[in-house]
Amino acid sequence: MKPWAITLIIIGSIILVFLFYIVILAPLLSRLFPSRSPSWIPEVIDNPFRRNVFQKPKTIIKRMAVTPGMTCMDIGAGKGFYTKELAKQAAPGTVHAIDISKKVVDRLNQRVEKWAITNIQTHVQDAQVLNFPDNSMDRILSITCLPEIPEPIKALKEWKRVLKPGGIISLSEVYGDPDYPRRKTEKKWAKEAGLELVEEFGNFFVYQLNFRKTQKK
Predict the structure, then answer these.
(1) Which domain holds residue 18?
(2) Do 100 and 11 share a structural domain?
(3) What is the rounded (10 degree) CA torsion for 177, 183, 185, 190?
(4) Where are the alpha helices (DSSP H) in the chain?
(5) Pairwise CA distance, residues 23 & 200, whole Å
(6) How far apart are CA 67 and CA 45, in angstroms?
(7) What is the pTM of this model?
(8) Tens of pLDDT along 120-145?
(9) Bond before 57 cis per omega within 30 degrees
(10) I need a surface site. Which of 35, 57, 181, 193 has the fewest CB within 10 A?
């Protein structure tokens, strides 16, 4: 078989696998786990290849304008791809990594220890009821997590509560996630929660939205 034919077969196979995930697997996962994903889901879909191709940590964090000394929060931290980059950019400030699954947080603790990063604190908490004081966070990041929460507007109101004046809540979604919401859906949730859009990036397949507390006129 000629090399070009082998290349076409490989490319075709990759496309078929991608379509299988988008059309069949993602909707199936959404129906099986309509509220929160179980702890093993991040191990399957939250991988370095996907993150480095579609939602690069350095790019995501750069768009949030994180500066040294900031106090940040990563909600739905999973494996900590973004927690790690947040910690680098915010040092010596603290990054609070939040996840509702103790198993996920336990695994993240092992990674944090291996990374030898000292400004990350992990927490097992419900994103709708955060155990943090008002106006305590400079930046809040949530990657493909908000649509998994049963009441996303309630969650955003809670995130707004802990956000400092002038702070940013950054949301990013990628097409193919079981609970992928369209951009206008997250904008609607944010508006109802009392947030206003500051910046937006990306396209239909992968996007990032930065919000702040609605300014009083």
Answers:
(1) 1-32
(2) no
(3) 110
(4) 3-20, 26-32, 41-45, 48-54, 57-63, 81-90, 102-115, 152-162, 183-192
(5) 27
(6) 30
(7) 0.81
(8) 999 999 999 999 999 999 999 999 99
(9) no
(10) 35
Q: Tell me which residue has tokens 């900590």.
A: 80
What's the total number of domains in the chain? 2
Q: How far is it, in rounded angstroms, from Cα 157 to Cα 2?
A: 58
Strand, coil or helix: what is 3? helix
- 63 is written with which tokens? 């768009």
Query: Dmax of the chain from CA atoms?
Result: 69
Q: Which two tokens stand for residue 81?
A: 């791809």
- What is the domain-level CATH number for residue 70? 3.40.50.150
Distance of CA 4 to the CA centre of its chain: 38
Length of the chain: 217
- Compute CA 78 distance to the chain's CA centroid, rounded to the nearest angstrom: 9
* Residue 64 sits in the same domain as residue 119: yes
Q: Among residues 191, 199, 201, 189, which one has the least CA distance to residue 148? A: 189
Q: With contact defined as beta carbons under 8 Å apart, do 215 and 196 qualify?
A: yes
**For 168-204, how does the pLDDT look when each residue is reduced to its tens digit (9 = 90+)?**
999 999 877 777 889 999 999 999 999 999 999 999 8
